[in-house]
Design a protein that fits this description.
Rossmann fold; magnesium ion binding; hydrolase; phosphatase activity; HAD_sf; 273 residues; 8-stranded mixed beta sheet; single chain
């Protein structure tokens, strides 16, 4: 029986088959049906958690404060938060690793964003030309000197591209040039996330389950993108969104069109048990 459901955010929890901007980080929102489904899970004593590449603040902006009765894994597994927003665990880059990655991206002229616990730092080459996905969140700051990033507690570095064709070219270049101790994956229509190898959503979910005394087979996960693969590979009860990438869909056990269908299936199985 499932005791913990963990959901990706963008393209999964924010996905609305009637909305045209379901994937845009600044406009996509969690609709009422999905929020009601989360409430129903909690009412049935099933723990809920969000696992996202976003900040805790970004997740919170999607829910009224009284509905934030769930755990959050942010920045693809770098931080895990409890029900009261307390940090349960965290992991960040070393200064040497930060310098190695940002210097490379800067040398190659690639657009990129670094995230720390509470905000994003968007590197800007030309301060008069900030026109490309620059405001990934209302919690974005801008830097024009790469050395300003060296001393920060960075947990995720994200390279940016225009659409999947350009992203694939950037991705192939990055995995060829950067060290293999990094976890690099396309995470959306404009983003490639670069994390330390051991920092994944899957590992963070496993650690959260252990913290809560929940067995691996009692965990279900749902997502739509490459940064969700670690969850699909870690947990058998895995759900993928039908609009997800074809390669991603191969790794999940079930397929659903919208998030609340996953919740319906889990609650139906609970009633049968």
């Amino acid at each position: 029986m499932i005791k913990l459901l963990v959901s990706d955010m963008d393209g999964t929890l924010t996905y609305d088959d009637e909305a045209t901007e379901a994937f845009h980080i600044m406009t996509a929102r969690v609709n009422q049906k999905n929020r009601d489904a989360i409430s129903e899970l909690i009412e049935n004593d099933i723990v809920f958690a969000v696992a996202t590449g976003r900040l805790l603040k970004d997740v919170g902006s999607n829910f009224p404060e009284e509905e934030l009765d769930f755990h959050v894994i942010s920045q693809n597994g770098s931080y895990t938060y409890g029900l009261k927003g307390e940090v349960l665990r965290q992991d960040t880059y070393s200064e040497k690793q930060i310098k190695e990655v940002v210097d490379y991206l800067h040398k190659e002229g690639l657009n990129f964003i670094c995230s720390v616990k509470d905000c994003y730092y968007r590197f800007v080459y030309d301060k008069d030309n900030v026109d490309f996905e620059t405001k990934v969140s209302e919690f974005t700051k801008y830097v024009h000197n790469v050395e300003e990033l060296y001393g920060l507690e960075i947990c995720t570095i994200t390279a940016l591209g225009h659409g999947y064709e350009e992203l694939n070219e950037i991705y192939e270049k990055i995995i060829r040039d950067l060290p293999n101790d990094l976890n690099i994956g396309i995470t959306g229509p404009t983003t490639i996330d670069i994390n330390m190898k051991h920092i994944t959503k899957g590992n963070a979910v496993l650690q959260l389950a252990e913290l809560l005394g929940i067995k691996k087979e009692e965990v279900a996960v749902i997502g739509d993108s490459f940064n969700d693969l670690s969850m699909f590979e870690m947990f058998e009860e895995s759900y993928v969104m039908s609009h997800g990438n074809t390669e991603v869909k191969k790794h999940a056990k079930y397929e659903v069109d919208v998030f609340y269908q996953c919740v319906d299936k889990i609650l139906a199985m609970k009633k049968k048990s």
